[in-house]
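Minutes, project check-in
Item: structure for the 125-residue chain
Input as provided by the requester:
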Amino acid sequence: MIFGVELYSTTASYRSNWTDLVESFTQLHTVLKIMTTAVKVEAAAKSRLEELQAEIRLRTGQKITQQELLTRLIDDAYASRPEVIDSFRESPVPLSESEKAAMQQGRISSGVATDETDIDDILYG
């Protein structure tokens, strides 16, 4: 009878621990699902990512996951935000020296001195 009580007590304890473990795992799984987001990537971009991953492994001997590689690429892009943002502009900003020179070639002097008030009067009346 004492043995039966101990066995029941031990079984209940294991059952309680198992229940706690399953509950903890479920909570962790929920958190991880929230933290992980799927991103759709074109097949060509996925292929380049795989090539880059393979080249890193060949040159460094380190096996990295695509998630680690993407995280590094995002961190690098975040650190150079102005360049990344400018890469999405339709035209480069600021103008290159050759573009500035081309704009200046088309200008002519009217021979009349103009100041800000003259420009305001002409534009706004």
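Outcome recorded: The chain has two domains: 1-36, 38-96.
No further action items on this chain.
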